[in-house]
Amino acid sequence: MNDLQNKRILLGLSGGIACYKAAELCRALVKAGAQVQVVMTEAATHFITPVTLQALSNREVFTSQWDDRPANNMAHIELGRGVDAILVAPASADFMAKLLHGRADDLLSLTCLARPLQQVPLILAPAMNREMWAHPATQRNVQQLKADGTVVLDVGQGDQACGEVGDGRMLEADEILDDLIAHFQPKRLSGRRVLVTAGPTYEALDPVRGITNLSSGKMGFAMARAAREAGAQVVLVAGPVSLPTPRGVRRVDVRSALQMQAAVQAEMAQADVFVATAAVADWRPTNASDQKIKKDGSGQTPVLSFTENPDILAGVASSDRARSGQLFCVGFAAESHDLLSNAQAKRERKGVPLLAGNIGPATFGQDDNALLLIDAHGTLELPHASKLTLARQLVEQIAARLPRDGTPVLP
Ligand code: CTP
């Protein structure tokens, strides 16, 4: 995905062992379509060479405020103009302290200070020893930098280069990339709380067997990510899938439809939007065996009986919260044929204001999909695209339908 296509990023490196991760980050930014200009502090050059960053960014690297390559001899002005963001990764404790005071005795801090404040966001990925991170001075600086409008990303937790364990590692390159991509998404769901179900459910027959379906969970995980990128607080109730949790999303893992229903019921009072992408099993074995069902040698097959699972979405859609317009419900419809008529009927049957229809066999497990949105007024086709692209488009459609002034949105 070229999520950073046409974005110009100034990647700054201050001194720290996490500079080795900046090489990978630089590569990831370029791969995502960004034009990357690297600026390094003198300290950073002790950890990684400018040659490495030059090769990865396909551009000459700047390290000195006395560099006379820019025609006007003002590298600190030239470099910070026209970029979409300055990303400093790693941002050392010392570099953050320097920024806080508006000090500018090297090219990177000069460029940060001289950037047009309203147009060029400054994003920091801190990296340091856990004691340095926890120190009141650093924490004070982080708070003040945020108050000054700087975006300070989280730190990672775990083993540190110094041999200690704790908070302060720089995030991994892919995490910083995701945060940067999210930074550029419109904040259409800012202040909203979104609850998403995703994946299949698994209905046990016995301790080692069960029935499930081919849903991969990718659409639901993309929905959770897109909602988070749009500024929402997101809870993702996930059936058994092995996908990584999107950044900033709270995940609740479940297995069966009944567990999914219980998790949704526990969360729905704190949600403004409910998006049901899960492919919930329609039936569960009436009596799951505690022990493995064994062959008895007679050639007889076991007789299984099933009970219908509750319809989680219909249940939420008929709650007081949803009916009064406080909780906006979005359903999905996985059909194998007659998408329009089946999905229209399903929207009415479930009592939801918006439903996204798709052809199940064509999308289960794939990275792409196409959606047919249906509401009370008509239909809208979202043509074939990646699931994340579709999820962002669906977020836009949901945001446009949310009540701004408390007016309920009813099916
Ligand atoms: N859904 C749900 N609980 C169920 C079944 C479905 O919450 N027990 C939700 C799904 O998450 C989806 C929508 O209802 O948002 C439609 O799911 P789908 O599987 O397409 O339809 P079904 O309701 O199962 O109907 P049918 O099997 O007849 O197509």
Describe this structure in words.
The protein is of the alpha/beta class and 411 residues long. Helices cover 33% and strands 24% of the residues. It is elongated, with a radius of gyration of 25 Å. Bound molecules: cytidine-5'-triphosphate. Cytidine-5'-triphosphate binds next to helix 11, strand 16 and helix 13.
Residues in β-strands, percent = 15-25%
Quickly give the CATH architecture of the largest domain: 3-Layer(aba) Sandwich
Q: How would you sum up the global shape?
A: elongated
The secondary-structure class comes to alpha/beta
Strand order of the largest sheet: 12-11-8-13-16-17-18-19
Distance between the termini: 35 Å
Number of helices: 15
Q: Could you say how many structural domains there are in total?
A: 2
CATH class of the largest domain: Alpha Beta
Helical content class:
25-40%
Question: Biggest β-sheet: count, sense, barrel?
Answer: 8 strands, mixed
CATH superfamily of the largest domain: CoaB-like
Bound ligands, each once = cytidine-5'-triphosphate
Number of strands: 19
Question: What's the gyration radius in Å?
Answer: 25 Å
Mean pLDDT: 95
Low-confidence stretches: none
CATH topology of the largest domain: Rossmann fold
Features:
33% helix, eight-stranded mixed β-sheet, binds cytidine-5'-triphosphate, elongated, 2 domains, five-stranded parallel β-sheet, Rossmann fold, 411 residues, alpha/beta
